[in-house]
Amino acid sequence: MSEQKKSILVVEDDEQSQKYMRILLSREFEVFVAAGSQQAWDILEKENIALILMDLSLRDGEDGLKITRNIRENGPNPRVPIIALTAHAFPEDRKRSLEAGCDDYVSKPFQWVHLKSIISKFL
After folding, report:
1. What is the sign, positive or negative, of the torsion defined by CA atoms of 64, 103, 31, 6?
2. What is the residue extent of each domain of the chain?
3. Which of 30, 64, 103, 110 satisfies CB 3.0 to 4.6 Å to 7 for a cystine?
4. Residues 85, 78, 31, 19: is their CA dihedral positive or negative?
5. pTM (2 decimals)?
Protein backbone atom coordinates (compact mmCIF):
# COMPACT_ATOMS: atom_id res chain seq x y z
CA MET A 1 0.00 0.00 0.00
CA SER A 2 1.56 3.28 -1.07
CA GLU A 3 1.47 6.34 1.12
CA GLN A 4 -0.57 9.19 -0.28
CA LYS A 5 1.49 12.18 -1.38
CA LYS A 6 1.23 15.31 0.74
CA SER A 7 -0.31 18.28 -1.02
CA ILE A 8 1.54 21.52 -1.67
CA LEU A 9 -0.11 24.71 -2.86
CA VAL A 10 2.09 26.95 -5.00
CA VAL A 11 0.77 30.53 -5.14
CA GLU A 12 2.54 31.98 -8.16
CA ASP A 13 1.20 34.14 -11.00
CA ASP A 14 4.02 33.60 -13.51
CA GLU A 15 3.16 30.70 -15.84
CA GLN A 16 6.77 29.63 -16.42
CA SER A 17 7.40 29.56 -12.68
CA GLN A 18 4.19 27.57 -12.18
CA LYS A 19 5.36 24.94 -14.69
CA TYR A 20 8.83 24.82 -13.17
CA MET A 21 7.48 24.35 -9.65
CA ARG A 22 5.04 21.67 -10.80
CA ILE A 23 7.91 19.74 -12.45
CA LEU A 24 10.15 20.08 -9.37
CA LEU A 25 7.54 19.08 -6.83
CA SER A 26 5.27 16.58 -8.59
CA ARG A 27 7.47 13.53 -8.07
CA GLU A 28 7.11 13.75 -4.31
CA PHE A 29 3.98 15.83 -3.75
CA GLU A 30 0.52 16.45 -5.09
CA VAL A 31 0.84 19.97 -6.48
CA PHE A 32 -1.89 22.58 -6.68
CA VAL A 33 -1.18 25.92 -8.34
CA ALA A 34 -3.00 29.21 -7.78
CA ALA A 35 -2.28 32.38 -9.74
CA GLY A 36 -3.86 34.65 -7.12
CA SER A 37 -5.77 34.99 -3.89
CA GLN A 38 -9.21 33.77 -4.99
CA GLN A 39 -7.82 30.65 -6.63
CA ALA A 40 -5.65 29.99 -3.57
CA TRP A 41 -8.62 30.38 -1.24
CA ASP A 42 -10.76 28.01 -3.34
CA ILE A 43 -8.05 25.34 -3.22
CA LEU A 44 -7.50 25.77 0.53
CA GLU A 45 -11.21 25.27 1.19
CA LYS A 46 -11.42 22.08 -0.93
CA GLU A 47 -8.07 20.33 -0.46
CA ASN A 48 -6.02 19.12 2.49
CA ILE A 49 -2.97 21.30 1.85
CA ALA A 50 0.09 20.35 3.91
CA LEU A 51 2.27 23.35 2.94
CA ILE A 52 2.09 26.56 0.90
CA LEU A 53 4.85 28.10 -1.22
CA MET A 54 3.85 31.76 -1.46
CA ASP A 55 5.17 34.24 -4.01
CA LEU A 56 5.03 37.77 -2.61
CA SER A 57 4.43 39.65 -5.87
CA LEU A 58 1.09 38.78 -7.41
CA ARG A 59 -0.84 40.73 -10.02
CA ASP A 60 -4.45 40.12 -9.00
CA GLY A 61 -4.77 42.74 -6.28
CA GLU A 62 -3.57 40.98 -3.14
CA ASP A 63 0.12 40.33 -2.65
CA GLY A 64 1.47 37.24 -0.93
CA LEU A 65 1.86 39.02 2.40
CA LYS A 66 -1.82 39.98 2.48
CA ILE A 67 -2.89 36.46 1.48
CA THR A 68 -0.66 35.03 4.23
CA ARG A 69 -2.20 37.32 6.85
CA ASN A 70 -5.67 36.37 5.63
CA ILE A 71 -4.88 32.63 5.85
CA ARG A 72 -3.51 33.08 9.38
CA GLU A 73 -6.59 35.04 10.51
CA ASN A 74 -9.43 33.37 8.56
CA GLY A 75 -8.13 30.30 6.75
CA PRO A 76 -9.58 26.80 6.98
CA ASN A 77 -6.17 25.70 8.34
CA PRO A 78 -4.51 28.80 9.85
CA ARG A 79 -1.52 26.77 11.06
CA VAL A 80 -0.53 25.41 7.63
CA PRO A 81 3.20 26.04 7.04
CA ILE A 82 3.75 28.90 4.60
CA ILE A 83 7.12 29.46 2.95
CA ALA A 84 7.69 32.75 1.17
CA LEU A 85 9.29 31.97 -2.19
CA THR A 86 10.16 35.25 -3.81
CA ALA A 87 12.54 37.33 -5.88
CA HIS A 88 12.41 39.96 -3.11
CA ALA A 89 15.80 39.19 -1.62
CA PHE A 90 16.54 42.00 0.83
CA PRO A 91 16.69 41.41 4.61
CA GLU A 92 13.66 43.70 4.99
CA ASP A 93 11.66 41.41 2.67
CA ARG A 94 12.49 38.42 4.83
CA LYS A 95 11.47 40.34 7.95
CA ARG A 96 8.16 41.44 6.39
CA SER A 97 7.43 37.87 5.28
CA LEU A 98 7.96 36.44 8.74
CA GLU A 99 5.97 39.26 10.36
CA ALA A 100 3.05 38.54 7.99
CA GLY A 101 2.98 34.95 9.20
CA CYS A 102 5.29 33.03 6.88
CA ASP A 103 7.16 30.23 8.63
CA ASP A 104 10.24 30.54 6.46
CA TYR A 105 11.65 32.45 3.50
CA VAL A 106 13.49 31.39 0.33
CA SER A 107 14.67 33.89 -2.26
CA LYS A 108 14.68 33.22 -6.00
CA PRO A 109 16.62 31.94 -7.75
CA PHE A 110 16.88 29.04 -5.32
CA GLN A 111 18.73 25.74 -5.20
CA TRP A 112 16.35 22.77 -5.27
CA VAL A 113 18.32 21.04 -2.49
CA HIS A 114 17.85 24.09 -0.26
CA LEU A 115 14.12 24.42 -0.96
CA LYS A 116 13.61 20.69 -0.47
CA SER A 117 15.34 20.82 2.93
CA ILE A 118 13.08 23.70 4.01
CA ILE A 119 9.96 21.80 2.84
CA SER A 120 11.16 18.68 4.67
CA LYS A 121 11.61 20.68 7.86
CA PHE A 122 7.87 21.45 7.89
CA LEU A 123 6.56 18.14 6.55
Report:
1. negative
2. 6-122
3. 30
4. negative
5. 0.94
